[in-house]
Amino acid sequence: MRRPLAFVAIAYAFAVAMLGTTMPTPVYSLYQAEFGFSVFVVTIIFAAYALGVLAALLAFGRWSDSLGRRPMLLAGIGLGIASAIVFISAGSLTALLIGRVLSGLSAGIFVGTATVTLVELVPDKWRSRAPSIATAANIGGLGLGPLLAGLLVQYMPQPMRLTFAVDIALLLVAAIAVYFVPEPVAVARGARPHMQRLSVPAPIRGTFVRAATGGFAGFAVLGLFTGVSPGFMTQVLGIDNHAATGAVVFVIFASSAAAQIGLRGLGDTFALRAGCITLVVGVAALGVSLLLESLPLLVIAAVVCGVGQGVTFSKGMASITAELPTDRRAEVTSTFFVVLYIAISVPVIGAGAAANAWGLVTAGVVFSAAVAALALISLALLLLESRDFHEEKASENSS
Fold this sequence. Notes:
By secondary structure, the chain is mainly alpha-helical. It contains 15 helices and no strands.
């Protein structure tokens, strides 16, 4: 396969793999009806995905360096297909949890391996666009999953099976495409895979904490929209249209991808501050949309939260990697992602428990306030860093 076609094939496989991880979102309400699950149980099912991602990042994060990119990508596709098969035949909570863990393992492999593979295979004339294409494949795929599944659930027969049958078909095409892609790395004979180490070097710990705090807030919002929005739509807003639910989730991911691509030229410090402020505005709109039971305001909140999340994530990552030597980037980046995937799961479980105790509206408002507080803490840390920097410069100039 020629290089341009190989690049397109990997981008397709990346998008499809990530699409499959969010396809269950519009189906959660069907599981609630069939099995009698509470919102809390649905959030646990959703959070099992993050457990799989974390396991893959830690266990398999460096395996593609030793085994090659193609074998790891094919393994990720295989796990995605296995997850879809489990969902098709799922008849219990245990099966759903297994399906989500398998989906998370697939995503964890693809997040690192596919991004690197795209950079390695990008044709020279597209090199400047490679990061944007990787972002579009990753975040765009995550957003297209609920949108496609929502349409299938709403308008097609046997949605609890058809949704995942479509996922399998898309993944099989991806597997064929990846199989014919040339291996971009020279695998040393006898090389053995090893676990990914986590660490944050002392000189960048301040930068890491500032970036991780804002990133935590942004990913917590993503988790809320993906895991709990079906309950908000049906029980609070009274909208029982699965396509609409999928579209709302799509909006936040699409806004995130657009912000990451469109605002990549902004300076890291300015963009991080603006991202934190945007997140505060977005979650405030989210809380008000629940209190007023307003779908238009919920959509606006999704757009604003998506922009804030996209900026805090991409610029937070950029600020961290800019200060790192090449040989430390993998472990620090993995550490950053561990924080983010804890954010996408643990707070959402808390929101589900709060919804059981206080109701969805109160839980959503409290969650919004907590995320706003985190974003404001990150903003305060950024402002303090800037003040300390200017004071240090002034001191140097005076001396």
